[in-house]
Amino acid sequence: MMRCAPLALLGAALFLAACQQAGTPQAPGRADLSADLVRLTVAGPPKGPEGVCWASDVTPMVIETVTEQVMVSDARRDKDGRVVAPAVFHSETRQKILQDREQVWFRSPCPQEMTVEFIASLQRALKARGLYVLPLTGEMDAPTRAALRRFQAERGLESDRLSLGAARELGLVTTDLGR
Known about the structure:
The strands form 3 sheets. The protein has a two-stranded antiparallel ribbon with strand order 1-6. The chain has a two-stranded antiparallel sheet with strand order 2-5. A two-stranded antiparallel ribbon has the order 3-4. The chain folds into 2 domains: about 35-60 and about 100-170, no CATH class; about 60-100, no CATH class. Strand 3 (about 75) and strand 4 (about 85) form a beta hairpin. By secondary structure, it is α+β, with helices and mostly antiparallel strands. The protein is built from 4 helices and 6 strands.
């Protein structure tokens, strides 16, 4: 009986491994909403299939500020090499634009879908993720927009307007018709 125990354990481990590979659902990944952004050179919205709705927002300008210490004069030393006057420095500050402001477009749920029930579901989904802490109102108010902005910013879209990709990840829409 003791000799069979290792074989039974090995068989059980192989069975569990096979079941895990075939039947265990994987947790959803985090969407990269920046991949859904459309940048146009002409006034939008983008041309798309009939019935597709778009929202737009303006991305912020990103500016880098660099401050450097620049030597104005060297240190002065006496004949023995001791410093009698330290080096003199001054600060120079420069700014560099890393990214300009721009209007971006992204797919969004159509206005007729943004019902009180839909927005309450959005608030519930944001509340479940710890982003919305107030009672459900079904209104797209400032706290809801702030929570939505935080959710989408973590995924590459700095906007308080609901994108279709975020709605999909939040479980509010299941299909992406017209894509």
